[in-house]
Structure formats: structure tokens, C-alpha cells
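Need C-alpha cells for this chain, all 439 residues.
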Amino acid sequence: MNELCGVAMSARRRAGMLALAVVAAAVGGCADMTSRGPASVAAVPVAAAPSAPPAVQVAVAPAPPPQPAPPAPPPVLPYDEAVLSAANNLLGKAQLPDTPGVRHTIVIDPLIDGVTGAQTVATQAMGARIVELIRERYPQYEVRPFTPGSVAQSPLVLVGTFTGVNKERKTEGERVAYRICLGLADLKTGKLVSKGLAFASAVGVVLTPTPHFRDAPVVADDPATTGYIKTCQGTKAGDPINPLYVDRILAATMISEAMDAYGAGRYKQALSLYENVLEVPAGRQLRTYTGLYLTNWRLGRRDAAAKAFGEIVDQGLASKRLGVKFLFRPGSTAFWSDPKAGATPYPLWLSTISTEAGRRQACLEVVGHTSATGPEPLNERLSLRRAEYVKRQIEQDAPALAQRMIASGVGSRETLVGNGRDDDSDALDRRVEFKVVGC
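Here are the C-alpha cells for all 439 residues:
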């Protein structure tokens, strides 16, 4: 009995082992089927795993190289150092043919404020200092006066602007420094041959306008002044001279002579010179009519002065912007008048503005401005009251304009000079402006 049991168990063990071998072959034998001979146990077919899709190549743009930091602006220098720095850069780097024994003729068109277009004590001093520098250190240049005869020879013309800037070097808010921009224009080639730039400290700078600009009744957009400023600012050596400037340079020489006569009190001579400017191409410009108004008023020729002021207003309204230098008593809407100056011109100004605006069927925004002294909320209210006062004065002359005018005040947000001195130098900051607007 025990032997039979042992035989049976041995048979069961062999059967179990055979079953395990079959399972192992079915499950584990897929790894090396080729190593087995024909007597090997047939493997159970197993589906092959699906192949992975090919990898998609994604184009990745290379990271842009880091941009270099913008160059730092030139440092703020004392006034005289800044003038010399800009002038030395201009004269020393000029792209001119170097012909032994030949001197380049150069004339200086009087430098101006880069915002208002006015000549000042500071810009005159700059011009005189540059002439000294040329004669001391640059024998290759010959300085000649800015006259029609000199310009007719197509010389080099030096132009320059002197512009107040704030701490961010922008022309707004409180001006704490001045940007000097010089350009050297070659009338033969019609291109700029050099540029000079520097920043001057405000310490010691005298911004009092020269007599013509001190007495000028208005500020308005003027193509001649715009062309001058654009020739100097926003350009580089090799750029063409602004055509507005080139077309008016002959008239500019004559206007400069007339301004000098007016500044010296030679009003009859100045009047004759301004009248001559009208006869040349591009002579009928804002500075010419301003000179005619000033000299005729000084000489007591009221009708001629009124006619010239009409031309001024017409040009201002045509450019859609006319700033008039009404002088008010401090903190008041009443006009200020100098007892020593005789009759005030304000009634003439208001009457002429009324007439020209009515003739054009224009709609006007009358905008009051103040200088930056005092709290700004008070400045805004004061500027509005002054605009409303001027609006009422015009309505008295031309009731039909009452429905075509609005008044507003901007306080000191749009100063042109921005030095806060409340004197002749920043009279334009206390202007009343007439803007042509849609009806």
C-alpha cells in the first residue's frame, strides 16, 4: 500500500512539474525563442507592443541677445563748460574736406530757445563765446557776419538751440538744466556736417529775452522757426538740412539785422528793414509782422500797427494756436499796465482777435495759463478766471462769437519756459491761448 501511494505521488509530482514547465515556456520563453530546438515547447503567440510614434521636433527660437543699456546722457556742466564742450565736438568732428591753405567760411544764425524760438541773453552769450573759440583754436574756419552777402556764398551755417529740461531731460515741468544742441549745415551740399550736444546747469543762466522777443505780443507756430529747430534737433551728421529752414534763410539774415536795429532803439531804421523783408521770398512770416507791429507802435502809427497785428493773428489762427501775452496783476484777472508806457495795446489786440475770428467763422477755446509759482489748485482756478475774463472782453466786441467760444484753465501744466521766476523771462508761461477747435 505504501509503495502504491509512493508511485501515485511520484506520478502526480511529475505531472505537476510538466505543467509548470509548459506554463513557464508559455510565459517566459518569449525572451529567447531562437535558442530553443525543434523539441522545445511551442510558445503562445503574443502581440507585439505598438511602436512609439516618432518624436516631434519643435523649433525653439534662440533667446534674443540682451540689449545693451542706452547710453547715459551727457553730464550737466557749468554753463560755460557746456557751451565749450558742445562747440568743440561740433567743430572738431566736422566732416569736411581737408584742403591745405583753404579756410571754411562759417556764419552763425543767432541761437534760439528750443521751445519758444526766442533769442535771449543766454543764447546771445553762447554765440559770442563760440566766435571767440573759433578764432582762438580753429584756424581752418573763417567767421563772417550773418548777412545776405555772406549767405549768398553758400557757407557753413552754425545753428543752435538752448532748451530747458527737467530732471528726466524732458521739456516739461520745472526746468533744472538746459540742453545745448548745435548743428553745422553746409549750404553747398544741403547737408549737416556735424553735431554737438551738452547739458548746462541752470546756475547763472540769464533767460531775459532780447528786445524784439521781450516785446513780441504773441507766440505762435512759425514755419521759419520750426525749420530752424528741426535742423538742429533730432538730426545727425549727414542728414539733409530741413527745407523750411533753407527756403527762409535769406529772409532770416534781413530779419536779424532788423532785430538788431530795434534792440538798439533805431525804430525808423528797423521799420524800413522789416518792410524790405516783405519783398523777398518767404519774407511774409511771423517774425516780420511782429517787427512791423512793434516798430509802428513805437512810432505812434496805430493804424499800421493794427494792420500788422491783424497779420499776426491771421497766421496764428491759421496754425490753430495763438498765445497772447496779456499781463495781469498778481493774483488778479485785471490787466496790468505800466503808467510810463502810455496807452495799453490790449484793446487793439482784443478787437483784432474778435474781427479775425469772426471773419474765419472759427470756434475758439480760450485757455488760461500761469507760471509754476504757488499751489497748483490755485493756479488752475486763476488761469480759468483769466480765460473767462478775456472771453467776456471779446464777446463785448463780437457778440456773435459768444456761442463759438469756451474757456478753460490749465494752471502751470503747459509752461513753455518753466523757470518759475515770474519776470520777463517766463512771461509766456502766463499767456492766454486761443486754440481753433471744431464747432
